Amino acid sequence: MNSFTEPEQPRGPAGFLLGSDGLLRPLWRALGFAGVAYFSVSLLGLLYVGLAGPVQGLPGIPYYLILTAVLLLESWVFILAADERNFRTLGLWFYSGWWREALGGIGIGLLLISIVVGVTAATHTVQFAGWGRVGLTVWLHLLGTAVGLAIAAALEELLFRGYGFQRLIDAIGSWGAVAVSSIVFGLAHLQNPSVTVLSTVNTALSGAVLSVAYLKTRGLWLPIGLHWAWNFCMGPVFSFPVSGLRIEPVMLHIAIGGPAWLTGGEYGPEGGVVLTVAAVGAIVWLALDTRIGVSPEMQEALE
Question: Contact, 61 vs 148, CB < 8 A?
Answer without folding.
Answer: yes
